[in-house]
């Protein structure tokens, strides 16, 4: 976990916690995975999932989808 924090793959919450007891949603998982794998993110990209078009994590979900990591 410390390695991922040092590499800014995971950042956590403003109060300094990582939210280890919080359910990981698709956007958060896609963000962590794409950052960990060094996948390039285009901030303008949108995933094919209709429920994620305007979500904050849309570019990360789109990148994970393009890489074959997530499917809808």
TrEMBL record:
Name of this chain's protein: S-layer homology domain-containing protein
Domain of life: Bacteria
UniProt keyword Protease, yes or no: no
PROSITE patterns for the chain: SLH (PS51272)
Species in which this protein is naturally found: Bacillus cereus
Source organism phylogeny: Bacteria, Bacillati, Bacillota, Bacilli, Bacillales
Alphabetic keyword roster: Signal
Entry-linked Pfam families: SLH
Domain SLH: 1-47
Database matches in InterPro entries: SLH_dom
């Amino acid at each position: 976990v410390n390695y991922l924090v040092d590499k800014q793959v995971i950042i956590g919450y403003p109060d300094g916690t990582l939210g280890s007891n919080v359910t990981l949603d698709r956007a958060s998982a896609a963000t962590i995975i794409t950052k960990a794998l060094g996948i390039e993110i285009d901030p303008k990209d949108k995933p094919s999932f209709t429920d994620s078009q305007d979500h904050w994590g849309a570019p990360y979900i789109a990148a994970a989808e393009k890489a074959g990591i997530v499917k809808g």
